[in-house]
Structures are given as structure tokens and as C-alpha cells.
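Your task:
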Amino acid sequence: MANPLQLRAEVLANHPEGAYHRLVLHAPGVPQRVRPGHFATLAVGGPGSALVLRRPFAIHRADPQAGTIELVIAPKAAGSRELAGARVGERLDLIAPLGTPFPLPEQPVSALLVAGGYGSAPLFALGAEIRRRGGRIGFVLGAAGTGGLYGADQARALTQDVLLLTEDGSTGLAGRVTDPLAEAIRAIGATVVYACGPMAMLRAVSEIAVAHEVRVHTAVEEAMACGTGICMTCVLPVVGEDGRSRFVRSCTEGPVFDGARVRWADIGSVPDDLEGAAAMGGGLR
């Protein structure tokens, strides 16, 4: 787990970007601790708020010199809508950085970065770091429609190998990010895939990567209540190095997992061969 801080972060900017809002927060001491793949949680409302659970967001950017971090928010529910409406000068209760970041290669690699919607938010800093280490990158970004895409220009600023897809065909190719994935892996000679987005997408990306004998690292978007490993609401079954399957917490052991080790088909259940399953009584969690 990262070494997080909790503080009242000042909102320096709130930029609407397509279907999303990008918050720039002044959070002294936090940016120096951030690595690509880390996330942050924000409290919603004040002490008397009915929205008692913090909301987790992948950290989009961190600027140690400015003392800022940036979060991308999709205003879909009451909590995220309230945060998306944060005013400049407002102070938000922030805990960051949290979680386990993406593993970075020691040597230059060719990496394909795959995202659905604003799942792309943590991938641009990752791509920049891979390039800084002498590697090559390509992006495959997708969404249901044009408004759901995030960061196409940021991807193009890092590489010419950018492929956009929308399910309705309004931007780029018509289809899903998994449709051209095998061809994209071959096109840039990718030896590793990094992915962030909905669970179904991560499962499909992992299956394709494994079939092509390519390493795959996935940042899961499992619902979580505390974000710090206490409540155990975000567990999912993962095969360990010893071959045994266990529930692990996506907030602390993740959110980044080896996609080949996640038991995607068993998420939401207690597999009979899971360590400790007998004590839990099996069935749905």
C-alpha cells in the first residue's frame, strides 16, 4: 500500500471535458508519493452528509512542483455529481495516494495501453513514464459514443499509434476496444498490455493478451467503501504465486492486478476451491 496523506485539498480548477469533469486539487505532499495507477478518495458533503462513503478516483496527473493532483470525475450518481460541481476555492477531504500502482518495466518495452471511457485517466502518466524509460507505446481508447471518450489528444501527444473506437461509430472505428486488440498487439510488437475500464472489458482484454502470450496488467474498478483495506467490500478472487486462489482487496493489493491471475468469471461468487471458502459457507458474497 502507498503511504497516503489525509488533508483538505483546495480546488484550484474544475474543467468540464466531454462527459467528465477534471478537478485540479492543491494537495501539498501528495504528488511526490504518486505513481501511475494510484488512486485517491474524496469525502462527499460535510460531517452531516447522508453520503457517508468516500468516492474513489484514479489519479490522472500529479505535479510535485505545483503541489497538485488531478482527478477525472464522471457525474453519474449523487456523490460524483456533487464532486463534479465543486467550486474553485472549495476544500475537499482527500486521502491519497492509495492502492498499488502499475508495475513499470526495468528495460525498454513496447506497451499497449487500453481503456474504456475515463478509465484512460491513469494511463497517460504511465505512458509518459514508459517512454521516458526508452519504451514504445500505443493506445486503444474506446467508449459508447464520442462524449464518453477521454484523452484522445493526450494520447496523440505521446504517440502516433492511437486507435479510437466508439460503439455507435460516432468517432473512430465502430466497435469495442477488444475488436482490434490482437491486431494492435502485433502492430507495435507489444510485450505488455496495461488496461483500465469496466470489468467485462478487462476480462476480454486479459483473455486476448494471454492468448497472445503477452503480459497484462489491469486496474480494476471494483466498488469499495473505505479504500484502505478495512471493510473488505472490494475483494475479488485472484490466483496467487503458489497456485492457490484467495480473495484479495482491490483497494490495497490492487487496484492493479496481473490480468492472467484474476478469476474474472468468478467475481461476485465464492468459488469452492477458494482458500477459506468452506468457512464462508460458499454461495454469493
About this structure: The chain has a mean pLDDT of 93. The radius of gyration is 19 Å. The longest strand covers residues 5-17. The chain is about 15% helix and 30% strand.
